[in-house]
Design a protein that fits this description.
CATH architecture of the largest domain: Orthogonal Bundle
Distance between the termini: 79 Å
CATH class of the largest domain: Mainly Alpha
Number of domains: 3
Radius of gyration: 33 Å
Shape: elongated
Number of helices: 19
Strand content: 5-15%
CATH topology of the largest domain: Lysozyme
Order of helices and strands: HHHHHHHHHHHHEEHHEEHHHEHHE
Helix content: 40-55%
Mean pLDDT: 85
Structural class: mainly alpha
Length: 433
């Protein structure tokens, strides 16, 4: 009974999650959809998600990829592959998750291996840094290792990727989802972009989805469009718990999601057979993490350690303004091993470099200067300026007050005059205007 109750609560919670790949707003996701009159007929069309295309284009401009890479691989054309070869290769993958072949899978394999060959070669280089992070997170939850290819289709291994709906990071989490799983998101820090922390959250989320569906294709679909839409598709398919059976009833972009996942697995594993060469990247796999308890700017580290600030950003994408707010609480800084050791040795120099300009430029306290008579009250007009008036023969205090649009009492107070005090010619009075 307790297990059933837990699963029910988890089920309801997950139904509130936002789209990641298809990006339907969270307010549109739910278990029950009353208005389904216009959805009686399934739509089997598959579309290429816009975010999928933009993510692939990103890697062409990534600083992490060495555009001047003179690889030893020869630039050979993509060979012809028969459908039977596709089937055999997919079945040979040592996987738990099914990798069936069909026309949709073929079309996305060709996008990777033919149309976007350069992008795939860049990702083949980037995976040497990111995949060990994914594998460790998945292994900790005892999940299939093939799930490490999800960030290929989610973000094209861009840790700062942002979708049209605001999902961010390698695993494309919405802000609300990230916070529900303990990720910090504010102006300076966005842990959805942290490769290590976001991978741990992704593994937790995937495991919870599997506890609901017990089918990895449905889990992958739910990761994309939310459990509410998967549940609705299952109902419309007469309760069938199979991705390909509910395929026509899923959102158009989600129909592409599992085929893309299969295609990514195929393309990354059989890159040699398609004459694809991993590009050289500027990310070193051997790194170290240092906890800092001072506010540090990336420019300080870059200048003192003599390393490009872009390189620091690659290893620490979670710091949105190039600032590590270690003065608030200890935060990690990840650097290549040799630079990490150098940071420890030169920490004092780093903290002093342009400190007033880069990190000590935020005032913790300010004074409010007193400005008298700056408001209009009782018809009086004051703008805060003090002038002087030389009393002429025949002038009275009330006449002077009227001339300058001030009250007699204010005039007396400003000049230290009592009620019985008289003014005389040549006397200088202060007037607050």
């Amino acid at each position: 009974m307790k297990k059933f109750f837990y699963i029910l609560i988890l089920f309801l919670f997950l139904c509130g999650q936002a789209y990641t790949f298809a990006q339907i707003p969270i307010s549109n996701i739910g278990l029950e959809e009353e208005n389904e009159d216009d959805e009686d007929e399934p739509d089997s069309a598959t579309v290429i998600p816009e975010d999928f295309t933009s993510s692939l284009d990103y890697v062409l401009n990534s600083w992490a990829v060495d555009k001047n890479d003179n690889t030893n691989c020869k630039s050979l054309p993509n060979p012809f592959v028969t459908e039977e070869q596709y089937r055999i290769r997919l079945q040979k993958l040592p996987y738990e998750i099914e990798m069936p072949y069909n026309s949709a899978v073929k079309s996305f394999i060709e996008i990777y291996t033919q149309k976007n060959r350069t992008q795939l070669e860049y990702m083949l280089g980037l995976k040497e840094y990111y995949f060990p992070i994914f594998e460790e997170a998945l292994e900790a939850k005892r999940l299939p290792q093939e799930l490490k290819y999800l960030p290929i289709i989610e973000s094209a291994l861009n840790p700062t990727a942002v979708s049209r709906a605001g999902a961010s990071g390698l695993w494309q989490f919405m802000i609300g989802t990230g916070r529900m799983y303990g990720l910090e998101v504010n102006t300076l820090v966005d842990e959805r972009l942290d490769p290590v922390k976001s991978s741990k959250v992704a593994a937790t989320y995937l495991k919870e989805l599997y506890s609901i569906y017990s089918d990895w294709h449905l889990v992958i679909a739910a990761y994309n469009c939310g459990p509410g839409n998967v549940n609705k598709a299952i109902r419309r398919a007469n309760g069938k718990h199979d991705f390909w059976a509910i395929y026509p009833y899923l959102p158009a972009e989600t129909r592409a999601y599992v085929p893309i996942f299969i295609a990514a697995n195929y393309s990354m594993n059989y890159s040699d057979e398609h004459n694809l060469c991993p590009k050289k990247v500027r990310i070193l796999a051997l790194t170290d993490t240092i906890m800092v308890n001072k506010r540090i700017h990336f420019q300080q580290m870059a200048a003192v350690l003599n390393m490009p600030v872009e390189q620091i950003r690659i290893y620490n994408p979670q710091y949105r303004r190039d600032i590590v707010p270690g003065d608030i609480k200890p935060y990690p800084v990840c650097l290549p091993l040799n630079y990490a050791n150098l940071l420890i040795d030169k920490m004092d120099d780093v903290l002093l470099y342009k400190a007033d300009e880069l990190v000590n430029n935020r005032r913790s306290e300010t004074e409010i200067l007193e400005v008298k008579n700056v408001f209009r009250r009782n018809g009086e007009n004051h703008n805060g300026r003090v002038t002087h008036h030389k009393v002429k023969k025949g002038q009275t205090l009330s006449g002077i007050a009227k001339k300058y649009h001030v009250s007699v009492s204010k005039l007396r107070k400003l000049n230290g005059l009592g009620k019985k005090s008289k003014i005389k010619p040549g006397q200088r009075l202060k007037i607050n205007r």
